[in-house]
Amino acid sequence: MERTVPVRTASTNVIAKYLPVYFVLLGIAGVEVLLAYRHFSIGSLLGILLALALCSGTLAVMYFMHLAEERRSLFLTLIPVTIFVLLQMNMIWSDSFRLLRMKPFPH
Amino acid sequence: MSDTELAMHGHGAELAEGSPYAIPSRKLTMWLFIISDAVTFGALLFGYGYLRIASSDWPTPFKFNPSIVNVLIMTLVLITSSLTMLGAVDSAKTGDKAKTNRFLWSTILLGVIFAGLHIREWFGLIDEGVRLFQNPWGSPLFGATFFSITGLHLLHVICGVVALIVISRGFSRGWLTAGHVETTGLYWHFVDLVWMFVVPLIYLLNISR
User: Fold this and answer.
1) How many domains does chain A have?
2) Does a structural domain hold residue A7?
3) CA-to-CA distance for A88 and B161, rounded, in angstroms?
4) Which among A32, B28, B109, B159 is most buried, taking Cβ atoms within 10 Å?
5) What pLDDT is attached to residue A12?
6) Which positions ≥6 away from A12 have C-beta within 8 Å?
7) Are A86 and B39 in contact (CB < 8 Å)?
8) How far is CA B175 from CA A77, B171, B172, B178, in A?
9) Does the beta carbon of A91 lie under 8 angstroms from any beta carbon of chain B?
10) How confident is the model at residue B5 (pLDDT cuts 50, 70, 90)?
11) Is A91 within the bounds of a domain?
């Protein structure tokens, strides 16, 4: 059933409200660039950058997309399933490392 | 129940359950689209990650200047556009059409700047000899993964800009509501979210040292 978006009479200063999230996201982007120039192995760098990207993504979903303000049922319906599906794709990593070192399948 | 309501919803309307999520159906639909799109991007990024790790000669062409500087500016532009989009949604909910339009057009402008910078980045790489299945440096799949992932993201940005133009005109003329602005805002934030994964995985993992 379609619901309508309630009309508010007074505008809050939404820009000021979300400015801290904005600066944290920019900060994470800056930290990612700094870390990319440190000498990590490709696997470690991938892990670190993915972790930071996940932090940014979580902030964007929870605050910019207002998922934190929605009912918990929406969060529980959408997010665990998405994470589960994405985690299933992790099956490929071991094979990619095996290919890099050109090791045969273990017998 | 009025005759109009009966005509719109039928006699069983009063028996229908409300949304368990307490959000409009169009917003739920957008969330479901976003989840499916997230999995699409996820599959592309996982496929890219596989090739990146499994290839010992993967090219690392992104110099700090111009590529990484360009990417940082693009990130700043896109995150700022999310902030202006939040302003547009908030203004739309209060019914302030002029303010909503100002925020929407700021978002559109930032989206166009982002797309322009992105296309400039592409032309830079094409000038250096990168094609879909060849490049001067190493694994020929670099171009295929780079252009497909960033291209799909760029397509999302362009579609978002077109949607925002339509929403802006519709909202100012009164045939679209604050709900439409909010739903388009969700899509725009998702485009921003995807970029947060594209930058570290596509660009920062392949910097030229």
Assistant:
1) 1
2) no
3) 33
4) A32
5) 67
6) B90
7) yes
8) 32, 6, 8, 10
9) no
10) low
11) yes
Confirm or reject contact between A14 and chain B (CB < 8 A): yes
Span A47-64, mean pLDDT?
96
Indicate whether this model's pTM tops 0.80.
yes
| A64 in a structural domain | yes
Residues 66-85 of B with CB under 8 A from A: 68, 72, 75-76, 79-80, 82-83
Residue B6 has pLDDT above 70, yes or no: no
Domains and CATH numbers, chain B: 24-206 (1.20.120.80)
- Return residues 41-60 of A near B (CB < 8 Å): 42-43, 45-46, 49-50, 52-53, 56-57, 60
Looking at B174-198, list the stretches that DSSP marks H as alpha helix, in order from N- to C-terminal side. 178-198
Domain membership of residue A1 (yes or no) is: no
Q: For B13-30, how does the pLDDT look when each residue is reduced to its tens digit (9 = 90+)?
A: 566 677 788 899 999 999
Which residues constitute the domain of residue A60? 14-101
What is the SS3 assignment for B198? helix
Closest among A56, A29, A62, A54 to B186, alpha carbons compared: A62
Task: Give yes or no for A61 touching B (CB within 8 A).
Answer: yes
Q: Are A37 and B209 within 8 A, CB to CB?
A: yes
